[in-house]
Amino acid sequence: MKLQQKVCIVTGAASGIGKEIALTYAREGGRVVIADINLQPAQAVADAITASGGTAMAVAMDVTSESEVDAAVAKVVAAYGGVDVLVSNAGVQIVYPVEEFPFAEWKKMLAIHLDGAFLTTKACLPHMKASGRGGSIIYMGSVHSKEASMLKAPYVTAKHGLIGLCKTVAKEGGQHGIRANVICPGFVRTPLVEKQIPEQAQALGISEADVISKVMLKETVDGEFTTLQDVAEVALLFAGFESNALTGQSLVVSHGWFMQ
Ligand code: NAD
Asked: Is the whole model's pTM more than 0.90, yes or no?
């Protein structure tokens, strides 16, 4: 097992990609924290892990609230004694053309994706330093950390921004064995993406099938969605990689949609 006894906080782990990462980490022996704004589904994920013999706890955390983030991390440290892995994954999608984007929605997007990554990183770093074991911080970027799509200005802005945060944390964390990396998935069929299909069809005036084949998967090498397992495997690689050789990187997992 690659994560034996490691304490792994995964934000947005009540659903989609975060949930799959949490299940994968638990199978690898990690003590997994399901941190989400929605406590009930988070608790259900933790209960499922516990029922199958793993170790997990759920914590309520709105990643945009410094007090909630700090309180949740303190609860984790009280229960498990430290933090070894942080996956900053919580995210939402809101789409409008730039000139129609409500300012409040723009700010909400940046708060969830960027403030959330900053606040969770800030709360976990002291514990990673104090343990003397270092740690791994993983940001859920996107192909939109490298590329743009229409209608997604704050998402693309925030996902690009995560790469800057990652590189800074990698530099500041290096001497403490704290690594930081970004995963950049292509489209994965989660609730976040299912919601976008009809929205984009309406905004672009095309069918839902065309949104999938001509917008979402157009640039892939094979017309395939990236899977939850594909992303979780990369999250396991970054979490289990024990040296600073792999830090400050962003890895695109997108069926070739974006090639570095
Ligand atoms: P999802 O909607 O299935 O899950 C997102 C989770 O985040 C939910 O459980 C939700 O409750 C939680 N969340 C939302 N706001 C929160 C907040 N303020 N505080 C704490 N939790 C909050 O979405 P997903 O597709 O699994 O997305 C997860 C991450 O992956 C996001 O950062 C997203 O941008 C990124 N991503 C997704 C795709 C994709 O195609 N699905 C591709 C690239 C990147």
From this structure: yes
